[in-house]
Amino acid sequence: MPFLSDTxxxxxxxxxxxxxxxxxxxxxxxxxxxGLGAGEPxxxxxxxxxxxxxxxxNAGKTKxxxxxxxxxxxxxxxxxxxxxxxxxxxxxQVTVGTGGxxxxxxxxxxTLNPGDEVIIPAPYWVSxxxxxxxxxxxxxxxxxxxxxGYKITADQLDAAITPKxxxxxxxSPSNPTxxxxxxxxxxxLTDVLLKHPHVWVMTDDMxxxxxxDDFEFATPAQVEPQLMDRTLTCNGVSKAYAMTGWRIxxxxxPEDLIKxxxxxxxxxxxxxxxxxxxxxxxxxxxxxxxxAPNNETFKRRRDLVVSMLNEAEGIxxxxxxGAFYVYPSIHGCIGKTSAAGTKIDTDETFAKALLEESxxxxxxxxxxxxxxxxxxxxxxxxxxLKEACTRIQDFCAALT
Length: 400
Prior knowledge:
Aspartate Aminotransferase, domain 2; 13 helices; 2 domains; 7-stranded mixed sheet; alpha/beta; 3-stranded antiparallel sheet; 400 residues; Aminotransferase_I/II_large; L-aspartate:2-oxoglutarate aminotransferase activity; Aspartate Aminotransferase, domain 1; PyrdxlP-dep_Trfase_major; 12 strands
């Protein structure tokens, strides 16, 4: 009898974490490595949020809380969803988890049965398909190529839906591409969903506030209110508020689904960190004035990286609408050989050779379901980005 679960064999470790760990190991060995794999802002958590956490500690708010969040945080989430998204929820329709990942996982565990299908647009965040598999479902991928800005069309979505489809996981702006759907593009997708009343929508709005130029964020239930009763609107404080380590995610949706998710959480982690919850209350209710200057910094970095990568031979890098990633295609590099003799036959061999020969750590596109490409996180200093992009240019110029 095997000791480990058969379910575990269906999933793989996170490639993004693996890249970050490998880059850290090489740095520890004294090698000059620039890591562009981390999916977190390099800004510090705003001071007022840290102060709220300290105040919570000093007030003794260090005990267990309600399983899926304190009332004050749920009230702040309800207010945020009305203020920013014009969505009306009650606190009974809100759940809080240990990061956005747990929120998505709880929902899938609470709803999927063997054979249920979940539509996932590709490129996708690496955890989506593996969470579906862990929950017993089957991921169904719909590719949005670079030619369409890494977005899927209404016709593609319609063709992917079957009687077994239970969820569409929707992420805009996207990790890994930064692609954002306009309200009109989103309306075309929601029109399809209206024709298929058995399909629910799980939105991952984590990068909502990280948008650039004239792009305006929209979320499915906001664009099509008729979908409110089968939409789970998911978000968190990790990215916009530079609170990745605080581990607070949340969602709002139909009360029966929220109750089911609470049951899952009650038998796994129970409540999120009490101190982090009070910090999140301040994040959502407090000043939001730091968002605009942070976004200006990210926009400058995005423009720098897109410009420099498009100067590299064999690389085509679209300009994304949001998040802090770019997803350049390397079609022009496939089939060539690196200066050290590595045959570049996949984006994985490209990324491995780039790290070993040039000291730049990126995540290969195969990890996100669309090749040949790689993901760059520009959530690091301008100096690091300039040096890393210069090395990528030199690496590509040396390919023969």
